[in-house]
Amino acid sequence: MMLRVHAIGQTAALVLELASKSLWHRRIALSLLVLAMSLSCALLFFIERLRVDMKTSFAQSISGTDLLVGPKGHPAQLILATVFQLGEPRDALAYKSLQWLAELPSVAWTVPISLGDSHGPYRVIGTQIQFFEHIRTGEAEPLRFSQGKAFSGLWEVVVGSSVARQLDYKLDASIVLEHGLPSDENKGGTGAGTRNFGASASHDDKPFRVVGVLAPTGTAIDRSLLVSLESIEALHIGWQAGAPVPGLKLSEDMIRKFDLSPKQISAVYVGLKQRSLLFRTQRQIETGAPEAMTAAAPGLALADLWQLIAKAEAAFSLLAAVMLLVAMLGMGASLLSSMRERERELALLRVLGARPWLIAGLVLLEALLAASLALALALLSLSGLLLIFKDALLAEAGLRMSAQWIRSDEIPLILAVYACAFLVSLLPAWRAYRISLQQGLMDR
User: Is the pLDDT of residue 315 over 90?
Assistant: First the structure.
């Protein structure tokens, strides 16, 4: 038994050595084949990583928040308006509702937000200083400042990374906010002085100073400007029905004499003391609140939203499968076309005592070795490029992509590459098996 195992081991080692030398002998043509396969495999893995990371990034647009509470309506609409800044909140909550939420025994923290103003194409979020402490993105990553600090005064603003990059905002820049939803007017430009997009409902008499710039998060926060709730109230003193009172000009000292306590808010981020209390607290809010409210669990609502775009995910998977098929068919065609040139070589192996199954195994092993080289080159190059451009992808495209060499979710894909390489090499192996000794030695 031991002798038989030893003989099998020697045969396997011999076949591996022959396959390696055969590939090395055809290294010039093989290098082109491996390069083409590696490019296809790199594109395959990039598409798959893009699909998975887009889904993960979508699900992690907000993390660490247990409930998102807003006016009565559909949870998806609430998530779209507050987390993704798509659409407009249908209604508002009374500020006293925030106090009621904060007093619930199961609630650990609350962070209110107020929407309704803008700066060119970007939304303004009125909130509290606790926003920077409790709001998380990605894998529960806290918000970080690339420059400056959080707002503390009345006319101070923190800008997201995309706002700062697109409008070339630095610390102490002076900007003017507009009333109403974002518009595309005057989207570009970096002129000096106070930035005003020329909107008809502009708060040009109350300029803000940039005190902080957030680091990229890959979420809608990058496209936001954050101010205090008191600043939102101060902005609209002297306004009626969404427009300033003609001829009324109030100085900063006069505005500070008004009661700047918030009257209404758009939504509230809620963190619980225990995640197990989520559904009970959700029912308590929706049935016992002082006004009609919707309490959405962000994780569940985001999962439902992703189902609406599941066809796009399926299209990515189909494209990845097509890329794999193209890469493997190219390798199979190359192996098959080389069989005619290798008939004499394989016939000589038969003369030296190689059995037909050994020759077929040699061809199969060559295909698997070529696939291994292509896979290693593809994964190394892809990981290297993602590592280099990781920050640029996050800042420019909002894509949070992993730069790992091999990820656990990619193992089935790697096995699929080997399976396809094995399948497409079956025909060349069968042809090698069928080569007769007389045909191989025949002069051409």
Answer: no
Please tell me the distance from the alpha carbon of residue 96 to that of residue 289, in angstroms, as a whole number. 11
Residues 6+ apart with CB under 8 A from 248: 238
At 204 the three-state DSSP class reads coil
Alpha helices per DSSP H over 168-277: 229-235, 252-256
DSSP string, 308-372: HTHHHHHHHHHHHHHHHHHHHHHHHHHHHHHHTTTHHHHHHHHHTT--HHHHHHHHHHHHHHHHH
Please state the separation of Cα 291 from the chain's center in Å. Answer: 36
pLDDT for the residue numbered 33: 76
Closest C-alpha to 119, from 192, 61, 191, 201: 201
Residue-level pLDDT at 3? 46
Phi first, then psi: what are they for 60, rounded to 5°?
-105, 20
The strand ranges marked E within 120-233 are: 122-127, 136-137, 141-142, 145-148, 156-159, 174-175, 178-179, 208-214, 224-228
Q: If we measure between CA atoms, which residue out of 135, 137, 140 comes closest to residue 150?
A: 135
Q: Tell the burial category of 28 from Cβ atoms under 10 Å away from its Cβ (0-12, 13-18, 19+).
A: exposed
Q: Read off the pLDDT of residues 166-225 as tens digits, 9 standing for 90 and up.
A: 999 999 999 989 887 775 444 444 444 455 554 456 777 788 999 999 999 888 899 999
- Pick from 55, 232, 222: which is nearest to 128 by CA? 232
Compute the distance between CA of residue 27 and CA of residue 348 in angstroms, rounded to an integer: 21
How confident is the prediction for the chain on average, in pLDDT?
Answer: 79
- What is the chain's alpha carbon radius of gyration, rounded to the nearest angstrom? 32
Torsion angle defined by CA atoms of residues 263, 268, 273 and 278, in that order, rounded to the nearest 10 degrees: 130
In this structure, the dihedral spanned by the alpha carbons of residues 274, 276, 280 and 284, taken in order and rounded to 10 degrees, is: 20
